[in-house]
Amino acid sequence: MSKFRENISKYIFLALAFSSISALALITIFIIINGIPIIAEVGVLNFIFGMSWAPSHGEFGIFPMIIGSVTVTLGAALLGVPIGICCAVFLTEFAPQTISRIFRPAIQLLAGIPSVVYGFWGLLFIVPMIRNWFGGPGLSILAGSIILAIMVLPTVISITEVSILALPRNYKEGALALGLTHWQTIYSVILPSAKSGIVAAVILGIGRAIGETMAVIMVLGNAVAIPESILDPVRTLTTNIGIEMGYAAGTHRQALFATGIVLFIIIMILNATAQYVTRKKK
Amino acid sequence: MRVKPKTTELIAKILIWSAAIFVLAVLSFIIIYILYRGLPMISWSFLTEIPRNMGRDGGIASPIVGTIMVTAVAIALAVPLGIGTAFYLAEYTKESGITRVIRFSAESLAGIPSIVYGLFGFIFFVIYLNLGWSVLAGGLTLAVMILPTVIRTSEEAIRAVPQSYREVSFSLGGTKWQTIIKAVFPSAIQGISNGIILGVGRCVAETAAIMLTAGGALRMATSLFSPTRTMAVHFYILAREGISMSNAYGTAALLIILIFIINVVSNALVNRFMAKNR
Question: Could you tell me which residues come within 8 angstroms of residue A134 by beta carbon, excluding any fewer than 6 positions away?
């Protein structure tokens, strides 16, 4: 009897463990079957490189949105990654205990605040600031990049911190014993040794930025056009779905699912790369 | 010209300190500003009245109830699935092809943007399973979304339980199942609860996925099949459509306080768990 129960429990756990596999499979299948028809109709190249998005006229080109996503994410990475790595180095190497005891929960809070709140704050402060200082509408790539840079900080900081803390102590001790200064040790020993973790941190941060919707929907201006400067409004792949999904039907809805496919593929490539980089280290 | 190591050391130190101070300053500014504008709005009637006039007047009682219901559905599904997966990964199997696939799936789920969850939840739960825009559809979508969080934290908690606990249980003639239920699970419970708390936090903060799956109705949800909106969705609609800035601030302040409490509880659980298993 008890043997029977042992076997049953094992299979129940195995079945539960299949939940994430089936969830991923369902998501992939349902997004793809709902988006593929319109891509087939329009043509892959026309869909991805098409410049005109006018669902009511049957024009489905998402190239401006791809450019929007890429530029906003790139801006966020340029601003957020250096600050994030500095913060991780600060936490592991410089921060007195009292400060790190405030800093860590603060970063955790930063990660937990709803993304809409960031968007709202950006709309109230960042957008007017850009409008007053640099001109233009304020609703812009720059505004989105700044908000996303703040939002990716927790990801970049925590993964970088973990990979620095995972280094054997004698790396640092050896470098210091050779007469290197603290900064030389960090720069030439600690950061290079933690490289794969930092790369993973950056990739996952980029993934978060490219997938974020609600924070940028309020500050990007959402115009479907190729931007000429970082002060121009853009629309990203995510905001395209977020704005139009509420009322879309028929081929229009399919086109939003097709936008989702493109986003999904980008994210899966980023995820797989990050997982590969972390695995290789082990 | 070669810069002296002492000089670079100083410059680097200043840069790193200023980055840290800058981040703390930005965070404090966001939080203090929202609380400053929002806290005065929070009153008993704000918490207990149903929104009137699209949310211009009245309180946020129905979004609060909506948040609780959607979160409860998500937790009720994600917790058994997540803990089960964690036990399978940590106790029943060695690293193999199948664990790699499970891990890859969980990590991929963790990276999928919430708007994609929204698309999936809409087409699968709302349309295909015909649940309509409802508490249930929203909750099920969030369950899939928080599953990786529950799996990861639970697995870490289970692995942190000292091996000797299991050995003692086995040596007393306990079976694998008995060992898991009587020795491992009680020791890992605080770590596992932390995963659940973090899942609650993500549900409370989520907007995009719920917007596409739970509808956005302002009236009080009466069953799992009622459409509803959560506080985060309510806040978004108030702010984006400029319906009521003061009510938007009030809702945002409440959200921040909730997230703060969730983080404090989570940290307390982790600290107790670490202290016990040291």
Answer: A142, A231
Which chain A residue lies closest to B205 (C-alpha atoms)?
A114
The answer to whether position B8 is within a domain reads no
Number of domains in chain B: 1
Given an 8 Å threshold on Cβ–Cβ distance, is A267 in contact with B112? yes
Domain membership of residue B4 (yes or no) is no
In a domain, B138, yes or no: yes
Q: Are strands A53-54 and A59-60 parallel, antiparallel or unpaired?
A: antiparallel
Torsion B126-B219-B209-A161 (CA) sign: negative
| Closest in B5, B34, B108 to A268, CB measured | B108
Interchain pair A82, B19: CB under 8 A: yes
Q: Which domains, ranges and CATH numbers included, belong to chain A?
A: 49-281 (1.10.3720.10)
Q: Considering only CB atoms, which chain A residues are within 8 Å of B114? A: 211, 213-214
How do residues A109-119 score in pLDDT, each as one tens digit? 999 999 999 99
Q: Which two tokens stand for residue A200?
A: 């993973």
B234 within some domain: yes
What would the pLDDT profile of A226-255 be if each residue is shown by its tens digit? 999 999 999 999 999 999 998 888 899 999
Closest chain B residue by Cα to residue A8:
B177
Residue B198, domain extent: 44-276
Query: What is the phi/psi pair of residue B222, to 5°?
Result: -110, -20
Q: Do A184 and B9 touch (CB under 8 A)?
A: yes
ipTM attached to this prediction? 0.93
